[in-house]
Amino acid sequence: MARDAPNHTSIRMCVRTYHQVCTCGVRTYQKEAGGTITGPPSTGASGQHCPNTIATNRPAHAKEYTFLDIELKYGILQITEALSFLHYSGQVIHKNVCPSSILITKKGTWKLAGFEFTERTNETDATDPVPCQPWSTRASKLVQPNLDYMAPEIQINSSCSILSDMFSLGMVICAIFNHGRSLIQSGNSTSTYLKQMELVDEAVHNILPRIPIPLQEATTRLLKKSPGARPTAQLLTLIKYFSDPAVQALQFLDVINMKDPTQKTHYYRSTLREVLPFIPRMSSLGAN
To answer: Which parts of the sequence belong to the Protein kinase domain (predicted)?
Structure first.
């Protein structure tokens, strides 16, 4: 991840560039991409595959691509870590965490983009709300965040915090395991959004069986209507779902160039050898 949040011009350039090389990823789960969904992703062993999502205009390397469970797990962790850096090092609220803001490279790295709607965090406490603009039917949807993934306090109270991003992340997680479909289908109608938000607890309850068991409790908490009940990105990275030796090995591989020779030697001779049987051969994760 870059150390500083890029400006809007560089982000737009980044989006255009990654669009050319994006794999099937979160974006191609969306029906707007022209894809057809054959079923929900697998939540079993890491060697199993997620179902195909076939899109008409996808690049050759992404056609008939299937997600491995470990790729989903590591991808969600990468976005969570990106939000943690953004919130605590950058003091910035993303305010538009949704599938179209997540880009997946050919090498399997999940990147957080779409920084057009950021807000500065509260200087005293990042979890405290700051004023922000709610979604409005008087403006084009193209110049506003994705309403279907927006936290309720933004629309109802015209306020947001880093915990608003966590609600949006919870909605993204549900979409990943719900055929790419958001729990809220507002059709860019604020009244429809508010009506469906009243039923979001029931929607979460119905989708939970599709979500991996170690991720279910965290997902439920992320989608609490009260911001204070949601975990921060820092806390979310510590849940059991991410305590996977294979994922931890991939994390180390991502930053191996920053490690000293002794650490590298231990990794290749011990750590990698122990977890290699649990990393599917097809996975290209960690290759940067």
So the answer is: 1-242
Residues 159 and 121 reside in one and the same domain: yes
Would you mind telling me the total number of residues written for the chain in this entry? 288
Q: How far apart are CA 151 and CA 162, in angstroms?
A: 11
Is 269 part of any domain?
A: yes
pTM of the model: 0.76
Q: How far is CA 45 from CA 212, 243, 246, 262, 281, in A?
A: 10, 14, 12, 32, 14
CA distance 134 to 157: 8
Kindly report the CA angle at 165 between 175 and 122, in degrees rounded to 5?
175
Whether residue 107 lies inside any domain: the answer is: yes
* All residues at 6 or more sequence positions from 25 whose CB lies less than 8 Å from its CB, including other chains: 62, 75, 102, 103, 104, 110
Q: Print pLDDT tens along the chain (288 aa).
A: 433 444 433 333 333 333 333 333 444 333 333 333 233 333 333 334 444 333 446 666 666 677 889 999 999 999 999 999 999 999 999 999 999 999 998 878 999 999 999 999 999 999 999 999 999 999 999 999 999 999 999 999 999 999 999 999 999 999 999 989 999 999 999 999 999 999 999 999 999 999 999 999 999 999 999 999 999 999 999 999 999 988 988 888 888 889 999 999 988 888 888 888 777 765 444 444
User: What tokens were used for 144?
Assistant: 């506003």
Residue 10 belongs to some domain of the structure = no
